[in-house]
Write a structure and sequence with these properties.
Layout (H helix, E strand, L loop, with lengths): L15 E5 L4 H12 L3 E6 L2 H12 L6 E6 L5 H14 L5 E4 L17 H24 L6 E6 L22 H26 L3 E6 L4 E2 L2 H9 L2 H14 L1 E2 H4 L1 H8 L8 E4 L9 E4 L8 H15 L16 H7 L4
Helix pairs in contact: 3-4, 4-5, 4-10, 5-10, 6-7, 10-11
The protein binds NADP nicotinamide-adenine-dinucleotide phosphate.
NADP nicotinamide-adenine-dinucleotide phosphate (NAP) binds next to α1.
């Protein structure tokens, strides 16, 4: 796996892929790689104009696949629902749902539904989107070729804690803690979803990935929102010196989304220097990210807050342990 590149992705002809946040950065490079291999890619973006620019840029490569723009604002559950309706009206299949979009270390803001924006966009928006597209994924996957949900996390998840008493940072807010919480939530969700899909015998797998450190727009949004020129310049310099290009950073994600030897519940990241760069490899995420009790509790809270329920059984019901047991495990958080 150590020299793997996007050229080694299997042929994607006839496959439908939804990429959130596909107008720039890692999402755009994912969309480029998928269409180069023949996939029909939906650019799920909050700005239609930016998505159209990205579409034109990727089309200039002369890809084999097709690109469709559909509006999706993950900071607004009405938009998430409208996207899911528009997608299911227009497409019959969904082979890969690429939960990629994100914001990092921004000053405290709220989404249309009153969620802290990093938790709301990075986790809750994707939680709702996945639930609303689950029927399409289930109808598309087969035992031999399961559909995949691949959720983008970050190495920063390692410092994350799920603060169930103040999920939205209303009492105290630190922009990096909120980002880390959202990226830990991405992993807890990805693994819990996989457990539930398996318990249901559904032909869908859920995986996760992280890009290491890749030069994208992500690092400049926070400093820009704070109006800090010094931090903006600092982030630009760090990107120029330390980061790998987006087309390299997206490789672990593409591996997780397409390779036959990748399977549900796995996590992929770059295997080079401090897992910040390099070719994709399978990795372990933090101990906390595998805590089933925390995952169970987060799942329940996410269903409640988004109003999107999943028609999937609690995997613990079949092994004799109860939801209450699972919830107890999270008492440390
Ligand atoms: N770059 C890295 O080093 C790095 C490291 C670890 C993890 N990641 C993760 O990788 C993912 C992609 O980030 P990136 O580096 O490619 O950053 P990016 O260049 O800033 O791209 C982020 C994408 O998310 C979209 N987005 C933001 N808010 C949204 C919303 N409310 N609704 C829909 N889309 C929204 C952005 O749209 P606009 O252009 O309209 O803002 C953009 O398309 C994120 O989940 C991030 O946490 C990145």
């Amino acid at each position: 796996m150590s020299t793997w590149t996007a050229a080694e992705m299997p042929d994607q002809t006839g496959r439908t892929v939804v990429v959130t946040g596909a107008n720039t950065g890692l999402g755009k490079e994912a969309a480029r790689a998928f269409t180069a291999k023949g996939a029909d890619v939906v650019l799920a973006c909050r700005s239609e104009a930016k998505a159209r620019d990205a579409k034109a840029d990727i089309e200039a490569d002369g890809p084999d696949g097709s690109l469709t723009v559909l509006e999706l604002d993950l900071a607004d559950l009405d938009s998430v629902r409208a996207f899911a309706d528009a997608f299911t009206d227009a497409f019959d299949d969904l082979h890969v749902l690429a939960n990629n979009a994100g914001v990092m270390a921004i000053p405290r803001r709220e989404t249309a539904d009153g969620f802290e924006t990093q938790f709301g966009v990075n986790h809750l928006g994707h939680f709702a989107l996945t639930g609303l597209l689950l029927d399409a994924l289930r109808a598309t996957g087969t035992g031999a070729d399961p559909a995949r949900v691949v959720t983008m996390s970050s190495g920063v998840h390692e410092r994350g804690r799920i603060d169930f008493d103040d999920l939205h940072g209303e009492r105290s807010y630190d922009k990096w803690d909120a980002y880390a919480q959202s990226k830990l939530a991405n992993l807890l969700f990805a693994y819990e979803l996989d457990r539930r899909l398996e318990a249901a015998g559904a032909p869908v797998e859920s995986l996760a990935a992280h890009p290491g450190y890749a030069a994208t727009d992500l690092q400049r949004r926070g400093p820009e929102m704070m109006g800090s020129t010094l931090r903006t310049v600092g982030m630009r310099l760090a990107n120029a010196v330390l980061a790998q290009p987006a087309e390299q950073g997206v490789l672990p994600y593409l591996y997780a989304a397409t390779m036959p030897d990748a399977s549900g519940g796995e996590y992929y990241g770059p295997g080079g220097l401090a897992n910040m760069r390099g070719a994709p490899e399978r990795q372990r995420s933090s101990k906390r990210s595998y805590e089933e009790g925390t995952a169970y509790r987060l799942w329940s809270v996410s269903e409640e807050q988004t109003g999107v329920g999943y028609d999937l059984p609690d995997p613990r019901a079949s092994d004799g342990s109860s939801a209450a047991d699972a919830t107890d495990v999270s008492a440390d958080d």
